């Protein structure tokens, strides 16, 4: 199991979330600001099986845009190993 933490532009959130959902990949959205990209952002928490990671990353690459000035990155993405997964 893997956890993808993706910090994306707010304006990309709907498109990315809908595309992930269409592929059967669920994401939890958290509004965020500051830090790496310095303004209003969306943080997506995506828990998925290892074999779906490449597709999720492809969706992020294809559906995230660069900043208005073209100098910002499309997204900041972390892919983490998950030791345990428990639903309560």
Structural class: alpha+beta
In angstroms, what is the radius of gyration?
Answer: 13 Å
Strand order of the largest sheet: 2-3-1-4
Described by the principal axes of the CA atoms, the overall outline is: globular
**What is the number of helical segments per DSSP (H or I, 4+ residues)?**
2
**CATH fold descriptor:** Alpha-Beta Plaits
Q: Tell me the β content.
A: 25-35%
Order of helices and strands: EHEEHE
| Poorly predicted ranges | none
Oligomeric form: single chain
Give the CA-CA distance, first to last residue. 17 Å
Plain-language structure description:
- This protein is of the alpha+beta class.
- The chain has a single domain, classed as 2-Layer Sandwich (Alpha-Beta Plaits), CATH 3.30.70.120.
- Helices cover 24% and strands 32% of the residues.
- A four-stranded antiparallel beta sheet has the order 2-3-1-4, with helices on one face.
- A hairpin with an 8-residue loop joins strand 2 and strand 3.
- Helix 1 runs antiparallel to helix 2.
- The longest helix is centred in the middle third of the chain and has 11 residues.
- The mean pLDDT is 89.
Structure keywords:
single chain, 88 residues, alpha+beta, Alpha-Beta Plaits, four-stranded antiparallel β-sheet, 24% helix
Quick rundown:
With 88 residues, this protein is of the alpha+beta class.
Task: Indicate the topology.
Layout: E1 2-9, H1 13-22, E2 28-32, E3 41-48, H2 53-63, E4 75-81
Antiparallel strand pairs: 1-3, 1-4, 2-3
Helix pairs in contact: 1-2
């Amino acid at each position: 199991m893997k956890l993808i933490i993706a910090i994306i532009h707010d304006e990309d959130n709907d498109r990315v979330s809908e595309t992930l959902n269409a592929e059967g990949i669920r994401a939890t959205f958290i509004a965020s600001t500051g830090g790496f990209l310095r303004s209003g952002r969306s943080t997506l928490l995506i828990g998925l099986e290892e074999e779906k990671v490449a597709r999720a990353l492809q969706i992020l690459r294809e559906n995230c845009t660069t900043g208005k000035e073209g100098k910002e990155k499309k997204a900041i993405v972390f892919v983490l190993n998950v030791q345990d997964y428990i639903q309560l």
